[in-house]
Specification:
It is globular, with a radius of gyration of 13 Å. About 6% of the residues have low confidence. It has one domain: Immunoglobulins (Immunoglobulin-like). With 84 residues, the protein is mostly beta strands.
């Protein structure tokens, strides 16, 4: 559970132990709704994103971060990460 003020920057971290990485996904689920894919980053990429969201993949340290640079009420959801 993470509670932040509107307009604040936050970072969601996801760590994993799998050494063989093909695809890494971030998903979001609003209450009572289905999962929605936010992004897919492939093993050949290191980062992707735009001015609002940025995903970084650290292959050596086995982590991914999802940055929300200026949070707003619409960001309220459950976030998931998945590795394939």
């Amino acid at each position: 559970f993470l509670n932040i003020q509107e307009g604040m920057h936050t970072v969601l971290n996801c760590t994993y132990q799998e050494r063989t990485l093909f695809n890494f996904h971030w998903f979001r689920q609003d209450p009572g709704r289905r999962l929605v894919s936010l992004t897919l980053i492939q093993s050949s990429q290191k980062e992707q994103g735009d001015k609002y969201f940025k995903e970084l993949l650290g292959k050596e340290k086995f982590y991914s971060v999802w940055n929300i640079t200026a949070s707003h009420l619409g960001d309220s959801a459950t976030y998931f990460c998945a590795l394939r």
